Amino acid sequence: MTRFLALLLLAANVISGIGVVQARHQHRQLFVELTRLVDERDELNIDFGRLQLEQATWAEAHRVDQVARARLGMKFPEAGEIVVVQP
């Protein structure tokens, strides 16, 4: 009976050890994945900041006015060219 109990405890100990090893391995894999995702997030945040800065530069009123005049030949209408439509 004691021999059976000793074998049962040995088996439980081995199974528990395998479980611990598997849990640690999974923890390491998840930590590596987390680190990769954090790095990717940081890179995306940097790119997003650059794009916001570029968008702000292109959307400046002075820049839009410059492009409208140079490329599209647009200008402000003269006083005689303005028509007011009333309902």
Structure description:
Helix content is 77%, strand content 0%. It is mainly α. The chain has one domain. The longest helix is centred in the middle third of the chain and has 57 residues, at 2-58. The chain is rod-shaped, with a radius of gyration of 35 Å. Essential cell division protein. May link together the upstream cell division proteins, which are predominantly cytoplasmic, with the downstream cell division proteins, which are predominantly periplasmic. InterPro entries: Cell_div_FtsL. Belongs to the FtsL family.
Number of strands: 0
How many domains? The number is 1
Shape: rod-shaped
β-sheet strand percentage: under 5%
Q: How far from one another are the termini?
A: 103 Å
- Helix percent reads over 70%
Largest sheet composition: none
Radius of gyration: 35 Å
Poorly predicted sequence stretches spanning 5 or more consecutive residues: none
Helix-strand sequence: HH
In DSSP terms (H or I, runs of 4 or more residues), the helix count works out at 2
Going by helix content, strand content and strand pairing, the class is mainly alpha
Task: Lay out the secondary structure.
Elements: H1 2-58, H2 61-70
Considering the chains and any ligands shown, give keywords for the structure.
87 residues; mainly alpha; cell division; cell membrane
Concise account of the structure shown:
It is a single-pass type II membrane protein. By secondary structure, the protein is mainly α. It has two helices and no strands.
